[in-house]
Amino acid sequence: MVQDRMGPKSTAEMPPRGARRRSRRGLFLPYILLAVIVVAWSAGWFWIRSRAASEIDGWMAREAAAGRTWTCAERSLTGFPFRIELRCSAVTLERSDGRFRLGSSTAVAQVYQPRLVLFESAGPLHVEQGTLIGDASWQSLQGSFHGSADGFTRASVVVDEPKIAVASAESEPIVIAGQHLELHARPDPGRYASEGAVDVNLRLNQMQVPQLDALTGTRDPADLALDATLTKATVLGTGPVPKEMERWRQAGGTLDITALSLAKGPQHVQAKGTVALDAAHRPAGRLDLRAAGIDALVGSIVGQRFGSEQGALVGQLVGGLLGLSRRPQPDAEADATPLKNLPPLRLVDGKVVFSGFPIPNVSVPALY
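^ DUF2125 domain-containing protein, sequence as received from the core. Prediction below:
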């Protein structure tokens, strides 16, 4: 009896050999699936990379056929496994009206979110446009573009410590520097489909412009803010600037300024209105103004006709009549002078008309 209890197990109690093999294969199944996924993902990424390269080449060929030659120096497409990263040591555009060159730049899109493109550039930017030569540099520049099936949903550029210089043979160079610049654009929810309208938001902090210092009589840095809507923006392309602006003008494009603010030391000006282009390609329209502390500015403008001393007196008189002079406040909390409404500013036939009178020695040139 003891021998029977200690004897070998019956065949009914032994697991089949096939079952043992199947259980062992189950141990390796996750690794097999992982290997398949890795191989498939790698093949997919290289296919996407090849497709992206073909799309870039095709777009550049179409642009060249239209007279716009793009060059991406030392182009590379990397970013495996989750990104497509386009790098250029320099980006150049040559066309009939000028030449543009941007320094080392990178554009990145996630494989699972291809319509969101992130961009950064070390710069600098050099532009040759007719008789104008422009140069721009910065500490950092980053941007983003959110594409959609019918265009885009948002585009943004953020720049730290921008510096722009524009030179021309006919005038002295204009230099604009700042601490921080932001530019955002998006389709206007109610007007994009019908008017091709795009909302634009611009902020430039601690702006310094020598010409503006001379005009206002103060070297305080300025803060600029703009909220506006550009109608007929969808007609604009990458062609020569005069051609694109004329197309925009003929389409009836306007710049609807919701809020424009310029604060420089004790001086503060706000404006809103609409500006377009007239038949002579000059800005034309009307701006409603509010301001404070600009008696020195009025004096500077009037002084161009009557001389600096009389201009300063007239400026103080006009500023007092309009309530624009900055008066001492009894305490620090009341330091901000309230803005006063001004007569509208009109751009008519190349003239700047304020309160019904053209401003002397000030004209509005044609933009192209």
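Helices lie at 2-6, 17-65, 192-195, 210-216, 241-250, 295-306, 308-322.
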